[in-house]
Design a protein that fits this description.
Helix content: 25-40%
Radius of gyration: 18 Å
Order of helices and strands: EEEEEHEHHEEEEEEHEHHH
Strand content: 15-25%
CATH class: Alpha Beta
CATH topology: Metallo-beta-lactamase, Chain A
Strand order of the largest sheet: 2-3-4-5-6-7
Number of strands: 13
Number of helices: 7
Shape: globular
């Protein structure tokens, strides 16, 4: 499945330089679920000729070759490929991209790796002088990761935090309790000044990282309260809850919303609230 995004108000598209070390190459796969498309990120030290690619995106030969062309124009060679998680709009092109670049693919899920090395909490990836710290952020999916780019006070969030709207907890692989813990972890990074900018997997760059994470936490609390109230009012099935709580959301997105509702119902049951 895709990122399963519930979009908010329109904002500018993404693409091009975002920080001193990060450049976005937008994949041509726009949809209600992927917003403008998937953001493939090229990250490197300004004075290095080596770059790291994060989330090559869908299996789209033209896009993959465009990522390489952008790297070449920047005077960079892609030396490593990383994945934030395994959804096809982020990872389906990884194997082909690895062929084109001759790189390994590192991911949390062993099934997505090409090469011997995976990714784990606290790992620091160093390529061409660049440092990326692995921040596990399960919730959207069990294998979701973020990458902290400390030199730019930025974090690459995949689908954990988006540039517009909110992401779906892809139940049953994704779990709401894990997701809330991941958001709190990101909030801690923003609170101490380590992270000021969010480089998302979809949508525009967010320059107020702390505000974005606080909004996500507040939104989740609000939705959870709405779901709890809906159940108390007799809306007992996930489909009934979606129709009640997400009545103002485009119906084409209701199947994605139902995944989040199932995760919310599971969370409420676990905590004895319904």
């Amino acid at each position: 499945m895709t990122a399963a995004i519930l979009p908010g108000a329109p904002q500018p598209s993404v693409g091009g330089p975002a920080t001193a070390r990060a450049v976005c190459v937008l994949a041509p796969n726009p949809s209600p679920m992927t917003l403008d498309g998937t953001n493939t990120w090229l990250v490197s030290e300004p004075d290095s000729d080596l770059a790291v690619a994060i989330d090559p995106g869908p299996q789209d030969e033209a896009h993959l070759r465009n990522v390489l062309a952008v790297a070449e124009r920047l005077g960079k060679r892609v030396a490593l490929t990383l994945l934030t998680h395994g959804h096809p709009d982020h990872a389906a092109g990884a194997a082909r991209f690895a062929e084109l670049t001759g790189t390994n693919v590192r991911a949390l899920d062993p099934a997505l790796r090409l090469g011997d090395e995976g990714l784990a909490a606290g790992d620091v990836i160093t390529t061409g002088g660049l440092e990326l710290r692995v921040v596990p952020t399960p919730g959207h999916t069990a294998d979701s990761l973020c990458f902290q780019l400390s030199a730019d006070r930025a974090v690459l969030t995949g689908d954990t935090v988006l540039g517009r709207g909110t992401t779906v907890v892809a139940y049953p692989d994704g779990r709401l309790g894990d997701y809330l813990d991941s958001l709190r972890h990101l909030r801690a990074l923003t609170a101490d000044g380590s992270v000021e900018t969010i480089l998302p997997g979809h949508g525009p760059v967010l320059s107020d990282a702390r505000g974005a994470v606080e909004y996500y936490l507040a939104h989740r609390a609000h939705r959870l309260a709405q779901v709890e109230t809906a159940v108390e009012q007799g809306h007992t099935t996930p489909a009934q809850v979606v129709a009640h709580v997400y009545a103002d959301v485009d119906r084409s997105l209701w199947p994605a919303a139902e995944l989040s509702v199932r995760a919310q119902l599971d969370y409420l049951r676990e905590h004895g609230l319904i």
